[in-house]
Amino acid sequence: MRKNSLVFFALFAFSIAQAQSDTLTNESIVKLHQSGFSSEVLKSKITNTPAKFDVSINALMKLKDNKVPEDVINLMIGSPNGSATIRTSPQSSGGGSSQASNVSTGIFYIKSATEIVEMNPSFIVSKKTDKTIHLLTTLADADIRVILNEPKAALEVPSLPKFQFVFDTLRSNNENPYFGKNSSPKNFFLVKLKPTKKTRDLVVGTTSAVSENIEIKERQKIPMKNKKTGPGVYEVSPVSPLEPGEYGIIFSNATWDSQSGKIYDFSVKK
User: Fold this and answer.
1) Which of 70-79, 171-180, 186-195, 247-256 has the highest mean pLDDT?
2) Could you tell me which of 211, 217, 168, 213 has the C-alpha nearest to residue 191?
3) Residue 133's pLDDT is what?
4) What is the DSSP string of the chain?
5) What region does 247 belong to: left with phi over 0, alpha with psi -120 to 50, or beta?
6) What angle do CA 150, 154, 156 make, to 5 degrees?
7) Spatial separation of the C-alpha atoms in residues 59 and 53, rounded to whole Å
8) What's the gap between Cα 46 and its chain centre?
9) Which has the closest alpha carbon to 166: 180, 184, 181?
10) CA 55-169-180 angle, 5° bins
11) What is the mean pLDDT of residues 227-237?
């Protein structure tokens, strides 16, 4: 009996040690990154592994100093304990929407009743002003544009896609790392992007010789509808089918600079 007890405790201790050795930390993410693993590999590891991340300001600055990609850092912030995989249950017989549990904060594409894909935002690479019009008159308004790399988004969706918005309802100050203190999909805009040969553009404001106005015009906004499906969780979709092209979901209070300006971009199939 005593021998069996010793064997049990030895196995228990081994399982604890094994679990701890596969728990991700800031240091292990830095080591994996410095070993040459891609962002996609790091995010997949975070998505499927328990973790204990330090997401304090000093720790985030250290991650930045070690050149850890921002999309990886965002996932670490949204899931400090790791295992950020979206798990869904099939639709009920009454036609209800899929419910998510253990989800990380962010925006997700609902691919099917049992599969939800995390949308990793694209960061703007530059902001420019169309100064050509100023050559004609200094009083005319010129467009301010932000630029995304690549002429096409990696994520392709049908003409009437459904998205899941997940807000952090657990923090005492109701603030999450993605969208500040916002907790409503009504503070997001769906817009169409203008593709060029190498990039995609979005007009985010106008400027003239006397003023500058950063604002998404009403005519640029594509109407969306939403319904709440759980605490801090909403199902969001366009009111009408989208034409083929390049689109993006943006936060109304977005800061349009290359350090923090991001667009949840996607393509609509032709």
Assistant:
1) 186-195
2) 217
3) 52
4) -HHHHHHHHHHHHHHHHHHHHT-B-HHHHHHHHHTT--HHHHHHHHHHSBB----SHHHHHHHHHTT--HHHHHHHHH-TTB----EE-PPPTT-PPP-EESPPSEEEEEEETTEEEE-PPEEP-EEEE-GGGGGT-TTS-EEEEEEEESSS-S-EE-SS--EEEE----STT--BTTTBT---GGGEEEEEEEE-SSEEEEEEEEE-SS-EEE---GGGEEPEEEEEEETTEEEEEESSPPPSEEEEEEETT---STTT-EEEEEEE--
5) beta
6) 125
7) 9
8) 15
9) 184
10) 60
11) 89
pLDDT tens digits, residue range 149-204? 889 999 999 999 999 998 865 544 444 445 556 678 998 999 999 999 999 999 98
What the block records as the tokens of 137 is: 């008159």
More confident site: 210 or 206: 206
Residue 21 tokens read as 């050795």
- Rounded to two decimals, what is the model's pTM? 0.59
Per-residue tokens: 193? 């992007």
> Which amino acid is present at 269?
K
Structure tokens at 17: 């040690």
In this prediction, residue 101 carries a pLDDT of 39
Domain residue spans of the chain: 1-85, 92-270
Res 230: pLDDT: 82
Residue 129, strand partner residues? 144
Percent of the chain with pLDDT strictly greater than 70: 71
